[in-house]
Amino acid sequence: MIQLLASAVTSAFVAALVTNLLVPLLARLAPSMGAMDYPGERRDQPYPVPRIGGLAIVVGFSCGACFVVLAGWYEVFLEVQRREILAIGVATFLVFLVGLVDDLVGVSVAQKFVVQFAAAWLVVQAGWVFEVVRLPFLGAVELAPFHGVVTILWIVGVTNAINFVDGLDGLAGGVVAIIFSSFLVYALMQGRVLTVVWIAAIVGACIGFLRHNWEPARVYMGDSGSLTLGFLLAAISVHSALKAPVAVAILVPILALGLPVIDTLLVMRVRFLQTEQRGFMERFGRMFRADQEHLHHHLLRLGLRRRHIVATIYGLVLLFSISGLLVAAQRNPDLGLMLIVVEVVVVVVLRHWGIGWRGGRLGSRWKQPAPDERS
């Protein structure tokens, strides 16, 4: 265990160092690459900000993970087969590439979804699938023969949920770091070597990036960062459930990812039900367009400072992640289902709290438009 912890710390340190050093260099190159966010476009910052941080994050966590693996500290292929590593590597690269192209020249929503579904299919082909789901009154339900479809929808959904979270300075990077930290503890509980090294590197990369992303942000991660981190979160959540006890297999990742996933589902519901969209296809397409209906937007309408909103969401994600670890330690599926209900209630109440003040006294203090995110 000591050696495993040492490898995790080393992986995180290398990833944080590489990411931290790369961000300023890439930020200087961003204008010539066309990777800039200008005032009046997606966010309300008063000056142009590079959106190339995702490249630094990907290079950083790749260096952190490879450093430990290539050092030969463990025989990682005893845990994960080479074809699995190849499939996940190719899938991650595809998601990163479409995000990077979107940051540089723009990509349609349909094109991004095609790449995301293809990447999720590669994960399923590698054997990473949800096999069992726990339902109230029914107990453990085998997902076969639909486990592939369920897993693909989960991966694509989580990928975009994290992308949607990227709406305030420091928000997405911190949320991902907290959730991955809970996955790191879970992987340590399971004794999964490669997963520990991999997750630790991602946490380190997020921390290295956040140094440059606190308000006021000097760089954004862009879609290359948010989509890649979301995809990795989704894929690792599936992998974490593979060898978990049947009763809690899918509950732990759902609890940890509860806030971004629940918020995204509620936003998509609002978009679909908006009355100005008449036809079904119009409503369906509206579900994937950026707007100002996410939780952080509603909290902005309360007149709260952005840093306070980020801290509040950090706290909620931390509590939800700890609840997932508690369920894993207790192996209590009934507790997990109860906590999921609590998560839904908390997110719904917070959203309606903000919506209720939309035209009220506090809402009138919200003078500037909320930061927007890429869909």
Describe this structure in words.
- By secondary structure, the chain is mostly helical.
- The protein has one domain.
- 67% of the residues lie in helices and 3% in strands.
- It contains 14 helices and four strands.
- It has helices spanning 2-33, 53-70, 82-104, 109-125, 147-165, 171-190, 193-210, 222-242, 251-256, 258-273, 280-286, 295-300, 306-330, 333-356; strands at 36-37, 49-50, 132-135, 139-142.
- The protein has a two-stranded antiparallel ribbon.
- α2 (53-70) runs antiparallel to α7, α4 (109-125) packs across α5 (147-165) and α10 packs antiparallel against α11 (280-286).
- The longest helix has 32 residues, at 2-33.
- The protein starts with a helix and ends in a 19-residue tail after the last helix.
- 49% of the residues are buried.
Summarize this structure as a short list of keywords or feature phrases:
mainly alpha, 4 strands, 14 helices, disordered C terminus
Please describe the topology of this protein.
Layout: H1 2-33, E1 36-37, E2 49-50, H2 53-70, H3 82-104, H4 109-125, E3 132-135, E4 139-142, H5 147-165, H6 171-190, H7 193-210, H8 222-242, H9 251-256, H10 258-273, H11 280-286, H12 295-300, H13 306-330, H14 333-356
Antiparallel strand pairs: 1-2, 3-4
Helix pairs in contact: 1-2, 1-7, 2-7, 2-8, 3-4, 3-8, 4-5, 5-8, 5-10, 6-7, 6-8, 6-13, 10-11, 10-14, 13-14
